[in-house]
Amino acid sequence: MSDVPRYLVLNRFGNEFGEYHRYLRPHEGRMAYLTLAAGTSVLDTANALDTVVVTDLDFHTVLPVARALTARLGSFSGVVGISEWDLLTAARLREALGLPGWNHEFTRRFRDKPYMKERVAAAGLRTPRFTELVPGTDPTLLAKDIVTSLGLPVIVKPRSGVASAGVRRVDTAEQLAEALTGLDLAAHECEELIEGRVLHVDGVRRGGRFHFVSASAYVNTCFDFANGSPLGSVLLDPGPLRDRVTDFAGRCLDALDLVDGPFHLELFHTPGDELVFLEVGLRPGGGPLPDLHRELFGIDLLAETFRLTVGLPPATPASAHTEPTGGGWLIFPEPRPLPSRVVARTSLRGVVDGIHAEVLPEVGEVFDGTGGYLHVGGAFRFRGPDEATVRRDVLRTIECYRLTTEPAP
Predict the structure, then answer these.
(1) Which residues form the signal peptide (predicted)?
(2) What is the CATH number of the domain that holds 348?
């Protein structure tokens, strides 16, 4: 093999997120893919060192394949796993193959919610109070202890969950005991309910500083989306709040020792004007967020993530990023009950002025509950002169959009 760097890529995406070849210049390296079957169509297999389809991307599945590729192709220069689900597997592969990059302990700070909150709180920053759950504890006694410690309502959530899957709000000790019964306690935590709107901060760090950063406010929440409501986001206007939010996010990332890396950080802004850390991922935000940032700011967060992961310089300099006046996005969940087939949907171009892009499901398209933030009942991206105008357009879209479905076999 030549001396051109070789990168091992874990892929589960079947859309443009899997177009990794866009992130490398020809002289910067070549790739070998370990991919789920659904992701093969978007990969540049013609120019790949190899493409191996695997049944899953669990560590014990991909390790022997990675070792076989190493024996045949030579040592890799890095391992890439952009999806939240693949971050820890990629970290373990780096350790097993003796490769540079984020190790398991570092990556765990961005996957294990109690661990990340411990580190952020230790830096003197406000986080929700929480308790880890001890396996083998009687659910009724455990519920009483949690209520005494955290009060009610309380949130039960997976320690390393994604997209609010498995998150529950409980309002009484009896409901809590019921929620804890039969639960894998070691894989869950409980935390206090924080009232307030949820904000998110997205970007890239290089050398301990923001190479790029944006701050936005959700319309509804990820928890609402998981339970059937639309989810949107609107960029914050320049000003004191945005400055406070990005400064707070920077201090949270300092507490987690994120010197170089992408991030999607969520926080609460309470009615009392307090900022409270919620959680952070070592990856770009999902759904339409990467597209919106590419269009409005001129930054490809996926390209920057890929290049940071393997130690390459930025795809674009910080000076190249534009500063839009206002923007946002909105997605509708998969129509319920599931499975369902699309009968009709309404285009809102010309109805809502701020829409500059819409992606609608095709008539006849089937939803089965596995779509997440990508295969959705409708997606819209917005531009506008300020935060208030974009928020108004997002709310009007929620009011006007219609998706008609019928049960599917």
Answers:
(1) none
(2) 3.30.470.20
Among 144, 174, 192, residue at a domain's last position: 192
Residue given tokens 């998110």 in the structure block: 200
Q: What is the pLDDT of residues 202-243, one digit of tens each?
A: 999 999 999 999 999 999 999 999 889 999 999 999 999 999
Tell me, what amino acid is at 247? D
The sheet carrying 130-132 orders its strands as 130-132, 188-192, 154-158, 168-170
Measured distance CA(334)–CA(225) in Å, rounded: 10
Among the listed residues 140, 223, 126, 145, the one whose alpha carbon sits nearest the alpha carbon of residue 190: 145
Q: What is the pTM of this model?
A: 0.95
Cα separation, 257 vs 353, in Å, equals 43
* Residue 235 β-bridge partners: 216
Same domain? For 188 and 202 the reply is no
CA nearest 80: which of 100, 53, 96? Answer: 100
Question: Looking only at Cα atoms, what is the longest distance across the chain?
Answer: 64
Lookup: tokens for 109: 């700070």
**DSSP letters of 200-258?**
EEEEEEETTEEEEEEEEEEES-HHHHHTT--EEEEEPPSSHHHHHHHHHHHHHHHHTT-
Q: Is 282 exposed, middle or buried (0-12, 13-18, 19+ CB in 10 A)?
A: buried
Alpha-carbon gap, residue 245 to 230, rounded angstroms: 24
